[in-house]
Amino acid sequence: xxxxxxxxxxxxxxxxxxxxxxxxMLAVCGQVPTPDIGTEFxxxxxxxxxxxxxAVFTHTVMSTGQMPQLLEQAVNTAYSRQGVAVLTVxxxxxxxxxxxxxxxxxxxxxxxxxxxxxxxxxxARVLSDAGDVTLLVGRGALDAREQVWALADRLKAPIxxxxxxxxxSMANAMPQALGAQALDRRxxxxxxxxxxxxxxLLGDLRTAVTYDLPATFVVFDNGxxxxxxxxxxxxxxxxxxxxxxxxxxxxxxxxIGLEAVRVTDPDEVSIPPKAKVSQAWGFAIARSKETLESA
Length: 295
Fold this sequence. Notes:
- By secondary structure, this protein is α/β, with parallel strands linked by helices.
- The strands form three sheets. Strands 1-3-2 form a three-stranded parallel β-sheet. A two-stranded parallel ribbon has the order 4-5.
- The protein has helices spanning 6-9, 12-20, 47-50, 69-81, 91-94, 117-129, 145-155, 173-183, 195-200, 204-210, 226-234, 249-256, 277-294; strands at 25-31, 55-60, 84-90, 135-137, 159-161, 190-194, 216-220.
- The protein has 13 helices and seven strands.
- It folds into three domains: 6-94, Rossmann fold; 127-161, no CATH class; 173-262, 3-Layer(aba) Sandwich (Rossmann fold), CATH 3.40.50.970.
């Protein structure tokens, strides 16, 4: 959801990620009151035009009589065309009660077909014969969460979640981690953030504090827009405009209200410079395993 004007524009980065991944998404955007539409009113933006490239469906609700039909069309189009749907609701419309009490009806998502038995048996054989296994899980397992967890538990295997290779936005690691943590506060969420991306959305560190989201952010502070630098080098161009003048990000995080540690020695990655007594046993076990494996 986004408010009118800038609030809705801020959604574009995430919506393009959804488009590239063919993720079904509904965005509800605010708009100025209907009498002010088309008058160059403060913060007025034509959302139907703004989102026309990223969305498979976009429409502005102009009366309560259009609901829930427009909501049904938006959701069903997002499902059928595997993309983003955008509904814009002017402020005066959003305050009204619907005239009818009809509950919206949504089309069911198409069921995924099972793999052939021979393929399943071959996969089972490969997994049984393997030693250590790591599960690389992509969108194909989107509706098989419980089965994936059961397989990982049986194999004692870690899980690595993958994203589509077309996801190319900046500053997505932290907000995606915050969203995942808000959905399930019991799970451990770790976001690997570039310093450039984190600095773009630095204020969202306070969001983690405000909503008590226990996500962990690992920030790679190399003072560069690294991907842009690589793109310039690949194109045979000199590096330009990629250097960052970062503050002490750990100190900023502490000022915002988070616990933070600035690591300058590689050995501190496994043992913090000021380990707590409660952490000592875990570090001792980790070190003993490391020694045994090295031996």
